[in-house]
Amino acid sequence: MSRTERETEAEGMREFESTEGMSEACARGLRHLLLACADTKLLLGYHYGEWTFGTPELEAAVASCSLAQTELGHVRLLHALLHRHFGDDPDALVERRPSAEFASVGFLDDAIEAWTGFVAANLVVDLAVTRTLYALAGSTFRPLRMSVGKMLDEERYHLHHGRGWFRTLARRDNEVAELRRQTEAALRSVAEWYGPKGEAEDAALVDAGVKSAASPAILDAIVRDVTSLAEEAGVALDAPAWKALGAWNPATRRLQVGGPDETILFRLRGTRNEVFKLT
Amino acid sequence: MESAEVYEVFARKEHDGELKHVGSVNAADDDLALAYAWTLYDEERWIEMCVVRRSAIIPVTHDGRLPVWGN
User: Fold this and answer.
1) Which site in A10, A252, B11, B46 is 20 to 30 Å from A184, CA atoms measured?
2) Among positive and negative, which fits the CA dihedral A151, A97, A192, A268?
3) B19 touches chain A (CB under 8 A)
4) Within a 10 A sphere around the Cβ of A259, how many other Cβ atoms?
5) Which residues in chain B are contacts of A158 at CB distance < 8 A?
6) Which CATH architecture fits A21-276?
7) Alpha-carbon distance B71 to B65, whole Å?
8) CA torsion A23→A25→A30→A35, rounded to 10°?
9) What is the ipTM, given to two decimal places?
10) Is residue B21 part of a domain?
11) A63 touches chain B (CB under 8 A)
12) Is residue B28 part of a domain?
């Protein structure tokens, strides 16, 4: 019996092998959360892949390409869980879903034109998904718990890359203003993705022990991580303030209708090469 | 890169195997050196990898001298 299972037992929490026995809000919240993480990782993978060329140094090009590969590997893991426990078709999730149904972090909706934007996505958005996975590492939903460790191991190098590049750009007077602007935009976007305090599905996930921390606590940790790194590097950041997110949609994790740019989805899906796809 | 430093990369394939020099990376700081080493030298499933700043290495042999047997 693993330590986590003993802890689960000690806390009187039920261990789940499937969604059977979960409350409706909990099961719905779990599907939404898995989709949101998979969608964000898919978009991160796309942007990292785009930045295989055009990086400031060759080592960063290799790193971007490697980061893309691990994100896409994680998408496969998360899609496998969605397929097995919720009946989602992984192909349909990527290939045939309207942009407005994606639950990815809005910062990734459009092309990332500048390296400062890449660094903000790497430092803040990547960290957001990783911190969410960290909150699932001791999940009472066993199939998810078994997949999270591998993802967290690999994400370690993503965090080093983001931190290293933030510090590097913070030392350059001509880059620091844009770095601050992009990082603050990424933080605001991540804050929207986490949703309002006391959100019903999030509360159900925490109550059932599927997730160890509520979204506001995870966001607080991210803001602390990023602002303290920025402070050490001499960059003062405005932390996003909690707002009343009345119209927030838990399925898309957005306040308003939106989604990835159609051109990005076209390229990401390989629509142009559809004729060559194996059936 | 204005402040890049050379880091030497060492890795071990098996628990009882030797730690081998596998290459080097140029990086602005330790965080980037870790990320670059891990993503650049991923041809094996290393069980251990570490980086050392080249500037921290203390030479045992004499720099710039012809090697002499027995040194």
Assistant:
1) A252
2) positive
3) no
4) 21
5) 35
6) Up-down Bundle (1.20)
7) 11
8) 150
9) 0.79
10) yes
11) yes
12) yes
Strands (E), chain B: 5-12, 20-27, 48-53
Put the strands of the sheet holding B20-27 in their side by side order. Answer: B20-27, B5-12, B48-53
The CATH number that applies at residue B32 is 3.10.20.520
Q: pTM above 0.80?
A: yes
Phi, psi of B5 (to 5 degrees): -125, 155
Instruction: Determine, yes or no, domain membership for B61.
Output: no
Residue B51's domain comprises 5-56
Neighbours of A150 (CB within 10 A): 13
pLDDT digits (tens, 9 = 90+) for B13-30: 999 999 999 999 999 999
Selected residue of A122, A150, A155, A168 to mutate for chain B interface (largest B Cβ count, 10 A): A168
B22 within a domain of the structure (yes/no):
yes
pLDDT in tens, A228-245: 999 999 999 998 876 666
CB contact under 8 A, B28 and A66: no
Domain ranges of chain A: 21-276
Q: Which amino acid is at A219?
A: L
Residue type, A174: N
